[in-house]
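Quick one, tokens below. Sequence please?
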């Protein structure tokens, strides 16, 4: 099943947050509206009770069962939320129901404190009545009927109050439409945003990379791209291709000079010894053929080494980008991952600048280094790749480790190459142990995995150029060659222990830096 586009994932996440906020706002507004409506309903019930009591006080002749029944029925049908209207008559034993609306619920006794207040002719009395079920809330109010300055009865009005749930139910359809419109608009907005800021620049970059993979060294991103992250990546790609063309031209020029010198030497030999003309001619042909083979080998090795070294930071970038595609939390950890991406892009440019120096020893600048600090930075960088490949990282770094003399960038390449070898040996996941220790006057670093391991013949040839056991297109046979070359520059040693099915262990030793 194809993965969802990045803009769709982002839109869904933003829509979910918006829907939560919209629902919370809807409930808060419904609660406020319900409070206002309930206050109005209570005020209307109070006015209705007081008006009916005042009419009965002015026209006491209506105080009979027949007329009161009609009156309560008429008043009860005035408003839909009016539950019931009752008229009570005051007798010696207390208030007795005289009339009630036709659809009224069974009457309830007037509380004793309310009766005492009504006898004294007090104003409208409110009795808070508990709802009869979970969906209904009722408001009960009494008003005294005073005839000739004497309380002769009371009017009761029971109002059904609107609740938050009943008010919310009226507008839930509108809420659903608003939610759907929000999702559609967010999806469209994110599509337009990603189309202009992400997809188009990414397509241009991928097209240029595909051209470069076919050997087209003139491949560049000529379209103008905004100076954002993709713009910086495109500029670095163009700079990288420019430097590759310069190196290729320089290599061809050196080959031409070499061919010219060989030709001159051959002509000189032919002039000095005509008797060896045939042998010299064959030698010239052989020399020229060897020169062509050397040129092809140099080109292949340079291209393979370039692809190998550039592939390492790009794999790290890919791991972080994949992690961001699945989840984009805005917290400090994600900011660190973005910083890692920026760092690896800078490494691409630096690796290209050092391509020519890789053929010579002693070109790097050695400074005092703490291997533990360098390894911790690498651990942060490879964390997403290890998680993606289901590899558990176990570290055991010795405390107070002495400094060594070295080039941090070159040694970082050594350690990353060893990590990549371990990942290739554990395609289904596994455990990678990295440790440091102090051994006499040397610092030792070990990389141990529980992968497939190697036999004795493979272990003896892994440091030979172009030797690889990986499938075509996956390995160049130069990773460990680069490792050994860099370690020789640092006067360090590397040994390997491996058995089929038992994993592999690389042991590196460095001399301790003596600081003045």
């Amino acid at each position: 099943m194809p993965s969802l586009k990045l803009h769709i994932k982002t839109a869904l996440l933003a829509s979910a947050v918006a829907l939560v906020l919209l629902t919370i706002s809807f409930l808060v507004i419904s609660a406020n509206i319900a409070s206002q409506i309930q206050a109005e309903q209570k005020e209307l019930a109070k006015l209705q009770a007081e008006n009916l009591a005042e009419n009965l006080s002015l026209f006491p002749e209506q105080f009979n069962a027949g007329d009161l029944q009609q009156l309560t029925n008429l008043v009860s049908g005035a408003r839909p939320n009016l539950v019931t209207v009752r008229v009570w008559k005051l007798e010696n034993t207390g208030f007795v129901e005289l009339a009630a609306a036709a659809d009224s619920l069974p009457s309830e006794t007037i509380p004793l404190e309310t009766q005492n207040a009504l006898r004294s002719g007090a104003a409208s009395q409110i009795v808070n009545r508990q709802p009869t079920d979970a969906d209904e809330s009722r408001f009960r109010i009494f008003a005294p009927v005073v005839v000739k300055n004497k309380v002769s009865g009371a009017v009761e009005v029971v109002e059904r109050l609107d609740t938050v749930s009943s008010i919310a139910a009226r507008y839930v359809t509108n809420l659903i439409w608003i939610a759907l419109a929000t999702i559609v608009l967010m999806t469209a907005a994110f599509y337009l945003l990603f189309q202009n800021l992400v997809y188009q620049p990414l397509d241009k970059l991928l097209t240029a990379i595909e051209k470069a993979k076919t050997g087209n060294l003139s491949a560049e991103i000529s379209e103008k791209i905004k100076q954002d992250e993709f713009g910086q990546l495109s500029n670095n790609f163009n700079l990288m291709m420019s430097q590759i063309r310069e190196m290729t031209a320089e290599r061809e020029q050196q080959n031409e000079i070499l061919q010219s010198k060989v030709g001159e030497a051959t002509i000189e030999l032919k002039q000095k010894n005509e008797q060896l003309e045939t042998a010299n001619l064959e030698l010239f042909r052989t020399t020229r053929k060897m020169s062509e083979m050397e040129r092809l080998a140099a080109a292949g090795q340079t291209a393979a080494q370039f692809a190998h070294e550039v592939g390492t930071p790009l794999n790290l970038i890919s791991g972080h980008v994949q992690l961001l595609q699945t989840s984009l939390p805005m917290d400090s950890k994600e900011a660190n991952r973005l910083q890692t991406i920026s760092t690896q892009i800078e490494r691409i440019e630096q690796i290209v600048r050092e391509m020519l120096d890789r053929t010579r020893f002693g070109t790097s600048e050695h400074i005092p280094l703490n291997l533990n600090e360098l390894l911790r930075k690498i651990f942060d960088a490879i964390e997403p790749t290890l998680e993606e490949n289901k590899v558990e990282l176990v570290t055991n770094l010795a405390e107070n480790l002495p400094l060594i003399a070295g080039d941090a960038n070159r040694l970082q390449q050594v350690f990353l190459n060893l990590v990549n070898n371990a990942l290739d040996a554990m395609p289904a996941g596994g455990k990678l142990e990295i440790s440091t220790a102090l051994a006499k006057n040397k610092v030792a670093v070990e990389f141990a995995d529980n992968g497939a391991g190697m036999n004795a013949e493979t272990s003896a040839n892994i440091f030979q150029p172009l030797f690889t056991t990986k499938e075509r297109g996956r390995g160049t046979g130069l990773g460990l060659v680069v490792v050994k070359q860099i370690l020789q520059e640092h006067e360090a040693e590397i040994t390997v222990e491996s058995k089929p099915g038992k994993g592999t262990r690389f042991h590196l030793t460095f001399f301790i830096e003596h600081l003045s």
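The chain has three domains: 6-166, 217-359, 362-516. Residues 130-135, 288-296 have pLDDT under 50 and may be disordered.
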